[in-house]
Every structure is written in structure tokens, then in C-alpha cells.
Amino acid sequence: MMAAAQHISPPGTMARIMVLLERERKTRFSGGMLGYLWAFIIPSAWIALVFALFWVLERTPPIYVGAEVFIATGVLPYLFFRQTVTSLSRTLSANRYMRYFSSVSPNDILSASMLLESFNVLMTSVLIFGMVTVAFGSPLPASMPGVLFGLGLSWLLGCGIGRFVATAGLLSDTFARAVPLILRPLFWLSGIFYTAAELPGAVQDILWYSPFLHVTEIIRESYFLGFKSPVATVWYPLAIAAMFYLASIPLERFAHNRRLMRGRL
């Protein structure tokens, strides 16, 4: 007698995400060790560039800390946010053929990209802050958990906004191409060059609505002993991240249904 064929169920959600994460990792870091180093070189180059700008303009940090660590606490959260948004905005188009498998959903693809970025945030921040500490003799963070929490907030903002951008890109290629242009002004709104305390009252009130300023101030509160921000709140960047993430869910369903009606799925 022939053995009864066993039904093989598709892998669970987490298993699919881990397979996609491994695929994304190999694609992103296809150059081997050089690919991993590139993820470290880019933020280092940004910090060096802003440090040179401080030197040329004879700018000193508004608090009694080294310029290199002051800049790092501003540049890294912005770069992590930007990289997460950029990665998510491209991942659905880069993995468009994977969406033809019934067991793979856009959410699986996006979740894998989010997880990969979380590992990148953790490893890069440890390496950069470690390098700054060793090279410049900067003191260690007053609260390492607080610094990691602040960097996690920048990642969550990137996940929420990036997921919205990715799903909106399914409806409009023009919108997806415009995202890098939209992100550029945020560099000046994230507190890289200043603290909220040194801003005039009217400007401070306006920039309060920038979640990136909150994130930078939260990180600096945790990194620099005695530094207190007049604006930093945790709930605001969390609310912005959640708002965009939740808005992306019905948008994804709408894009999926429209593709169904057009016979693309």
C-alpha cells in the first residue's frame, strides 16, 4: 500500500519573517564584510561632516560636552529614522515577486525589513558611541537604557512612517520618489545643531511639533548627566509613529483590493 501523503502546512508567520529577514540581509550586505562596514561608514561620515561644519563655523555645543558626542547624539537618531523609512519604502518593490506567493504577505516583507533595521540600529549605535568614547575620551552615557530607548523611538518613528510610505507607494510611484525630498528638511528639525533650550520661545513652540526634536532631546537627557530638556516627551513621538502605522493598514487593504480589481494579483 502507498503511504498516505502527509499534508504539509505552510510555515508560520514568524518563520516566514525570519526567512525574509535572512534574504534581506544577504541582499543588503551582499558585499560581505565590506557591506557590513558600509553600514558603519555612512553614519561615521555624516558625523565627521557635521563636526567639520562646527569647526568651520566656530560653533561650540550649547552644553558643556565635546562637539563629537553632541553631534553623534543628534545625527544617529535622524539617520536611523531616515534609513528605516528608506528601507521600508523600497522593500515592497524590491520583493514584488515574493508577493505572488499566497503564503507571503506585504506585512511579512515589511516586518522582516523592520527587524533588520532594528539590528542595524543596535549594532551601529554601539559601534559609533564606542568609537567616540575611545577616540575622544568622552564619558559613557549617564543612562545607557535611556539612550537605547531614545534610539528605539527613532526606529519606531521610521517603522510607522516608513510603513505608511511603503503602502502609499503601491498607489503612487510619484509619492514614493518624492519621499527623499520630503525627508531632507527634517535634518534641520531634529536638533542636531542645537538644543531646544537655546531656541527663542516662538521657535521652540513651533518645533515642539517635530517628533524628531523630542527624540534627540530624550537621548541627550539620558547621555549627558544633568541635561534637562524643556520639551522632551515620550508620548508624542510614540503617538506619531502609531498614527502612521495604523493609517497604513487600511491603506494597504485598499491598495490590495485595487490590484485585485485590476487583475494584478
TrEMBL record:
Ranges where the ABC transmembrane type-2 domain occurs: 34-259
Alphabetical list of Pfam families matching this protein: ABC2_membrane
Single GO MF descriptor: ABC-type transporter activity
Keyword Acetylation in annotation: no
Signal peptide: none
Primary localization: membrane
InterPro entries: ABC2_TM, ABC2_TM_bact-type, ABC_2_transport
Localisation: Cell inner membrane
Keywords: Cell inner membrane, Cell membrane, Membrane, Transmembrane, Transmembrane helix, Transport
Transmembrane region(s): 33-57, 63-81, 119-140, 146-166, 178-197, 234-255
Similarity comment text for this entry: Belongs to the ABC-2 integral membrane protein family.
Protein name (record): Transport permease protein
Species this protein is from: Roseovarius litorisediminis
Gene: kpsM_1
